[in-house]
Amino acid sequence: MEKESWLMTTLKQLNLTDSMEQEEGFSRLGYSEEEWKSIAVFEEKAISIGLEVRRDEAGNSIARWNANDDKPALAMGSHLDTVKNGGGYDGVAGVLCGLAAVKELKEEGFQPAFPIEVICFASEESSRFGVSTIGSKAMTGQLNKGQLAEVKDDDGISIKEAVESCGLSWKNITDAERPKEALRQFIELHIEQGTRVEEAGKSFGIATAIACPTRLMIEIEGQSSHTGSTPMDKRKDALVAAAPIISFISQRARQLSDENEVPVVATASMANVYPNKMTSIPGRVELGVDIRSVSDELKRGLADEIQLELEKMTTQYQVKINTRTLVDDDSVFLNPSVTESIKETGEQIGYHGLMMESGAGHDVMNMASRWPTGLVFIPCRDGLSHHPDEFASESDLNMGVEILKQYMKNEASNPS
To answer: Containing domain of residue 288, as a range?
Structure first.
């Protein structure tokens, strides 16, 4: 029987499993015992290949090659936490491939001209607290302690309590911030979470920008009454009013994507219906809407169109509608020089890259606020992510290792 590769063995170890086929997927939520166990495996693996490891005040784990050299480091990394019942490649692939690339360079006798780091960020996913990228926010000075301390998960545990249950101090969490001179640049590798790379006939993707969201909460207030005794012309059905809005959001986003060079996506992705009983007309509906595009003009324009459409509904369906903007973040554009270098590096070793946008957020979007950054995508089967069937092939993982390894060779051979 052929011996399993270091890459695939380590993939399973980081996922705390003997098999990647898990019907219920993986649940390693931010600042949980499971995430901490996975980060401990990362640290053990990093130490075993000769890296020096430290855990910062936010729980980010930093594995450093040439730790005593105080020159700015070239850093790579991602995260090991997952959504509930998620896959074992989202985040893990970036940490794994970073470690593997360093391991192979060390085995080849490569001597970098400055330090190289592999960073495992804490609590990237928003699945537990509804707040994403906590670790990288702290590292880049963007964590608002006062605003987040009492944000709670479904079990009533606050972010502050969860952080301190991991042996960290909430009081000191912002001390994880690193100065600009700490790093030269940061590269993240991630599964694509889509199919654009494969559909374009390319090997890998390079993100030029990250489409940060505009999120709306739409509250439609009608009147609940009996389904059997209320005449149709006397009803104020909040769910009936919501139905055309849901369709409008999807249809208008598709039209805008067809009409513009830059796509926009929009989803009515959350709905709460009250009182949600078979014999009661829905009196109130809450709709959560997520809009994304690297064109801030397009996504905000669509939000305005949705508001205009809602105003029409108030008279037509005899309901009251209130809209709140929950999030309205500017898109993040990654460093053009770094993205071009990543593309050239992949093509230097025989792969073909696709310049593209990222519709999902990643730790790299925070790192981009302080350092030159790049984001590499490797394919994942059917574009499926945040799902137990999430999968990236060993050959694509190896491609990721080769690209990172060659990139480090190109960048870290010269001390200037």
So the answer is: 213-328
